[in-house]
Amino acid sequence: MDFLSNFLMDFVKQLQSPTLSFLIGGMVIAACGSQLQIPESICKIIVFMLLTKIGLTGGMAIRNSNLTEMVLPALFSVAIGILIVFIARYTLARMPKVKTVDAIATGGLFGAVSGSTMAAALTLLEEQKIPYEAWAGALYPFMDIPALVTAIVVANIYLNKKKRKEAAFASAQGAYSKQPVAAGDYSSSSDYPSSRREYAQQESGDHRVKIWPIVEESLQGPALSAMLLGVALGLFARPESVYEGFYDPLFRGLLSILMLVMGMEAWSRISELRKVAQWYVVYSIVAPLAHGFIAFGLGMIAHYATGFSMGGVVVLAVIAASSSDISGPPTLRAGIPSANPSAYIGASTAIGTPVAIGIAIPLFLGLAQTIGG
């Protein structure tokens, strides 16, 4: 009963908070046909400032803390990011009318992290004076990068196997129509390799997936670049004065503007989601909560093993429940070009993000308050 009351109280507070109210407001005005537009350049500046602030907070905290305390939560973050992709691969991909490569891309986006959702969770924790490790925000890349890399690798492995099967089938079908080749007359035929290396390439299809370019592209993305820049500055410089005088006071106001933009974006994506299978709707409602509960359970293990705070457990659960809205989509577009963006971006932006912000944050916050007493 305590959990239910805590959840309901947090849910009402979240509805009244600038975070969710601006998100809902954006959806409402977009549904009413408003022509309000926030220039993309301004949105990029806002995202940069929000994630830089989170990175600065984490960097300064890491500088003054014991790094061994971060090891277990970081390892759990990596495991969760990878696991989420495989959950989508063997659940969503099995649903009728859902293409496997689209399901894998969706899993990658839901395994990656939303900086805005994490910022909303940190804001609510501060408002309710729930302590958490300041470096908890630095768990972002430990979950984000493995999820995107895993999705791209798994999708490419699947596509390569599919191509080889199709090629083998086509070869079997065309074998009967081929004319016999005279002994020693192989030089003009492309069916025969000219070297052992070429033979190995033909056997493997030469479709090896290179991991580092994927990691490099993720690190160079605007979201992670801002986050890691903030962490580095907080760790190696002394940015306290600019942090306290500029980044910290503006944080909540900038977050409210970003939520308004995301609300309008979410409504515009709903029409795209109608073009794909209805299972994406079911997945984008259930998956954030399922992923969050997995992370919450692992966070509790870290809590009892290393003293990881209950606030930190909430942060871990929320970033697992979130889905990337900044760095993930362009990375997946480049890494899995055959996947349908309407499927994975529509599922994430139109439903996944509102569920993560409106339900997952108060849910796990209430659960943590109940367990923590």
From TrEMBL:
Annotated PANTHER family: SLR1512 PROTEIN
Listed transmembrane segments: 20-38, 45-62, 74-92, 104-125, 137-159, 279-298, 343-365
UniProt-listed Pfam families: Sbt_1
Keyword Manganese found: no
Keywords, alphabetical: Membrane, Transmembrane, Transmembrane helix
Name listed for the protein in its UniProt record: Sodium-dependent bicarbonate transporter
